[in-house]
Amino acid sequence: MKQILRLLCLVSLVFAVGMVSLAQDDSDADVSDLLGEYVEDGEPGVVVYMRLGEDEWIGVGGLANLDTEEAVMTDDLFRIASATKPFVATVVLQLAENGDIDLDAPIADYVPAEVAEGLINIDTATIRQMLQMTSGIFNYTESDAFNDAVDADPSYQWTAAETLGFVVDEDPYFEPSEGYYYSNSNYNLAQIVIETVTGNSLAVELEARIFAPVGMDACYLETPDRFAQGIVRGYQLGDGDGYEDVTEYNDGTGLGDGGIVCNATDLAKFLPALANGDLLGEAMLAEMLNTVDDGEGGAYGLGIGYDESDYGTMVGHDGASSGFQSSMVYFPDDDAVVIVLTNNMDSEIIEDIAYDAIDYLLGEG
């Protein structure tokens, strides 16, 4: 249940902070205190956005750049990390909807032979299982060799195929469909599937199929020629007491498993468009929301988290990478969307204040 609980916590936070930005009467003083407890002077920042029907709120705090002390602004760009996965899954499902991909065919049918060679399970795991994290394929980010390579050359620009080289001959977690394991390798494979089938880069396909139609003008897939372009600085705690700028640290940045850059208001357009049928037909959307148990009390569909919460059905995804964290959540019954973006990799805001915030908002505390 880790992912869904995290999403639910973020919902509570965003509602509270959104009220801070637009409703500053005395009754909201304790909500302001919640934000103040998180974003102290000189710390990395956060953008929080909420829309409920026609009403929307956005709030910011903290710094976009610790060296220049530049404040975070509402339209700032952040890496969204693994919140990229629902976008990539949507493109794969669009291709399936068009008859270009069979969801129940082996992954190996849609990737070059030189990529597939040595990847255990790729000949038997299906496209569906790839998207649903039930392929069993080893997670390249858990490879000591990969992490050593990143440490040796933090600025190296990895390709999806190169990251999968660290999966060659690695034992799978299980036989396809025999379990669930969150493996980033699945989504770098998804990138290669998209590029093989379309003949275009993932960046081009995301722009043409999602960003442009939905009006997400600020969003792009980070690529070597657009690396860290226009984004705030990303931070993690260093060896001492201060923060370390890791914006240029490339741990697979810009790939299918977590490469999108966006601002909060444009990111908020994606899940409503998906739920409203603007990107997928009803049947394919149902396929996307066909979930499996994630082993922690939550559910995972084809690139998307799903749960029935105390506040209704919720779908979404979160992410963390290279100095950034993100979460996007949508409650389709209420047409409520929530976005949280931070340039603090080590933020513990969720654990500290989320449940207090939701109790304040809903009058249950």
Could you give a quick summary of the protein structure above?
The protein is α+β, with helices and mostly antiparallel strands and 365 residues long.
Question: How would you describe this structure to a colleague?
Answer:
By secondary structure, this protein is of the alpha+beta class. Helices cover 35% and strands 18% of the residues. The strands form 4 sheets. It has an 8-stranded antiparallel beta sheet with strand order 2-1-15-14-13-12-11-10. It has a 3-stranded antiparallel beta sheet with strand order 5-9-6. A two-stranded antiparallel sheet has the order 3-4. A hairpin with a 4-residue loop joins strand 11 and strand 12.
Can you tag this structure with a few keywords?
365 residues; alpha+beta; 3-stranded antiparallel β-sheet; single chain
Q: How many whole angstroms does the radius of gyration measure?
A: 20 Å
Low-confidence stretches: 1-33, 350-365
What is the H/E order?
HHEEEEEHHHHHHHEEEEHHHEEEEEEH
Number of strands: 15
Major beta-sheet overview: 8 strands, antiparallel
Shape: globular
Number of H- or I-type helical stretches = 13
Helix content range of the residues, please? 25-40%
In spatial order, strands of the major sheet run 2-1-15-14-13-12-11-10
Gap between N and C termini: 23 Å
User: Would you tell me the structural class of the helices and strands?
Assistant: alpha+beta
Strand content: 15-25%
Q: What is the arithmetic mean of pLDDT?
A: 86
